[in-house]
Write a structure and sequence with these properties.
The chain has 276 residues and is of the alpha/beta class. The protein has a single domain, classed as 3-Layer(aba) Sandwich (Rossmann fold). The chain contains 12 helices and 8 strands. Strands 3-4-2-5-1-6-7-8 form an 8-stranded mixed beta sheet, sandwiched between helices. α7 links the parallel β6 and β7. The radius of gyration is 18 Å and the shape is globular.
Length: 276
């Protein structure tokens, strides 16, 4: 009888942006749905503290949020809401905004509950708030991978670069992917290549462009209707692009194992001890 190989649990991906309004939450939502369509078990965790809008994009009113996990001592299973196509999501709130200042007992409770998610799902997608706070930095650094969402606007590109610089200057070594949203033409792929080149030159790290999502009127219509755009019109340019980006990600997925990188919870604990 063969001895089973140890499993690492869910892969954690943090979706981040240097500034608000670039479409990060919408992309994390539709990326999650595309993973589900490929038979992956996914939970989308809204960590945009105070500005969480996944439930708004879905047109759903959550019964519980992450706040209730601590205030009511609920199981994290009780905070999971169901969205379209079997999507599981945890609504945002201020529950983790002061994570670093929590009592150890509350942190231990969170670790215990989060461990349940790692056993239930293949992917845990963090929709982080724009920019970086002291607390969000810990969650970003502990994630297995980061997806940096930007647009082609100079300020958005500059903010994306600054975001990546903050991650690397604080010891982040996870794979970092780039997604350019609201592209006006395929020619804007050069923007991602230029950003990749600048990061390679000045930060001495490699980042991985995943692709473009075009400016698309269907996205605006889907937001107004509170329906994910990959469901609203699966043939729309943005929907086709998020499908391609997901396929590209899965095809080139970095092989992370138990032996080469610690899992999310271990990284969080190491960060709090100053050992990462």
């Amino acid at each position: 009888m063969k001895t089973p190989h140890p499993t690492r649990g869910a892969r954690t991906i943090a979706f981040i942006s240097g500034k608000g309004g670039v479409g990060k939450s919408n992309i994390s939502l539709n990326f999650s749905l595309e993973l589900i369509r490929r038979n992956k078990k996914v939970v989308l965790f809204d960590l945009d503290v105070g500005m969480g809008n996944i439930n708004i994009l879905l047109g759903l009113q959550p019964k519980n949020t992450i706040v209730d996990l601590f205030n009511e001592q609920l199981s994290i299973i009780e905070t999971i809401e169901k969205g379209p196509e079997g999507l599981a999501y945890i609504a945002g709130g201020t529950g983790l905004s002061r994570f670093l200042e929590m009592k150890q007992a509350d942190k231990d409770f969170f670790y215990e509950q989060f461990e349940l998610l790692t056993e239930m799902y293949d992917y845990i997608i963090f929709d982080m708030g724009a920019g970086i706070t002291e607390t969000s930095l810990f969650f970003i650094l502990a994630a297995d991978e980061c997806m940096v969402v930007t647009t082609g606007e100079p300020t958005a590109i500059t903010d994306a670069y600054s975001m990546i610089k903050q991650i690397t200057s604080n010891g982040g070594t996870m794979p970092i992917h780039l997604i350019l949203n609201r592209a006006r033409s395929q020619g804007e792929s050069t923007t991602l290549k230029q950003l990749q080149k600048v990061i390679r030159q000045f930060l001495q790290i490699e980042v991985y462009p995943l692709g473009l999502i075009p400016e698309d009127k269907h996205v605006v219509q889907a937001v107004i209707r509170q329906i994910p755009y990959s469901i609203f019109n699966e043939k729309a340019p943005a929907a086709r692009s998020i499908k391609q980006i997901t396929e590209s990600y899965l095809h080139n997925e970095t092989d992370i194992t138990l032996t080469d990188k610690p899992a999310f919870l271990k990284k969080i604990k190491n960060l709090l001890r100053g050992k990462l």
